[in-house]
Design brief:
Layout lengths: L43 E2 L6 E2 L2 H37 L3 H33 L4 H18 L13
Antiparallel strand pairs: 1-2
């Protein structure tokens, strides 16, 4: 059955780079969604269609943004490690009956920080899954810079498998 005459504008195909309405900029302004490794930056969208690389300047700023995002992840990990050490020190100096309540509150905060860290790690995975070599290199550079600045007191092995 031939469906070429049907209007697919309301089906969301424009968001996926298949052509058609929705973007307002025509075929040349659509996000390019690669599922294979590439160095091509033509119509590269990074995670969101609004983060659209349209030229060399936006590519450079985008790659710097990716580096900062990935370095920020290492800063978050360092903050969490320092919070855990501080919470343990606080609890150690208290009588046992107060120590339990402080540990419970601390555990809730650590759970929230763990959720933020997990979300952050998966967002970085999505950056990597652009399959764009430039973005992948920026992720690695950001991890390097972040570890260089914030990872002084930790070993280099990772606990998280997704990032």
């Amino acid at each position: 059955m031939d469906h070429s005459h049907m209007d697919h504008g309301g089906m969301g195909h424009g968001d996926m780079g298949h052509g058609g309405g929705g973007g307002g900029g025509g075929m040349d302004d659509m996000c390019n969604m690669n599922m294979l490794f590439t160095w091509d930056t033509n119509n590269l969208c990074i995670v969101f269609k609004q983060w659209h690389v349209r030229g060399p300047v936006s590519l450079i700023f985008s790659l710097l943004g990716v580096v900062l995002i990935c370095a920020g992840y290492e800063a978050l990990r360092d903050f969490i490690r320092r919070y855990e050490a501080s919470a343990a020190r606080r609890a150690d100096g208290l009588p046992r009956h107060r120590q339990v309540s402080v540990e419970k509150r601390s555990h809730v905060v650590k759970a929230a920080l763990y959720a933020v860290q997990t979300f952050y790690a998966f967002m970085i995975m999505l950056l990597f899954m652009t399959y764009n070599g430039w973005v992948m290199v920026a992720v690695a550079v950001g991890a390097f810079a972040g570890y260089l600045v914030f990872g002084k007191s930790t070993c280099a092995t990772k606990e998280t498998a997704c990032h």
